[in-house]
Write a structure and sequence with these properties.
The protein has 100 residues and is mainly α. The protein has helices at 10-46, 56-67, 69-74, 77-87, 91-99. 75% of the residues lie in helices and 0% in strands.
Length: 100
């Protein structure tokens, strides 16, 4: 018998491991090529002074965790703001109180 997830075919577990490594490498490569675009997007987002914004890195981590990296890159500033507001409710209420 092969490895636990290889069943009767010992080569299968090795193939599964290789595919997993390749997917991680592809994800790392995508992030390396799009890092500048992501940072530019965060600079633009930071300029809008979002509610409870602490740092670009922390905000980007939150948005990417919520949306996924590819979706994050595709979002307009308005879509990012909407995603941020859903993660940090209360910002809009505070703004309305200040305007009164």
């Amino acid at each position: 018998a092969g490895a636990p997830d290889g069943g009767e075919e010992p080569w299968f577990s090795e193939a599964v491991s290789t595919v997993s490594l390749d997917l991680q490498k592809a994800d790392d490569t995508l992030k390396a090529f799009t890092k500048e675009a992501a940072l530019f997007k965060m600079d633009s987002f930071e300029a809008t002074e979002p509610y409870e914004f602490k740092s670009k890195e922390a905000a980007m981590d939150e948005l990417v965790a919520s949306l996924g990296y590819s979706k994050f890159l595709e979002c307009s500033d308005k879509q990012l703001a909407k995603a941020w507001d859903s993660l940090h409710p209360g910002g809009k209420k505070e703004e309305k109180k200040e305007k009164k």
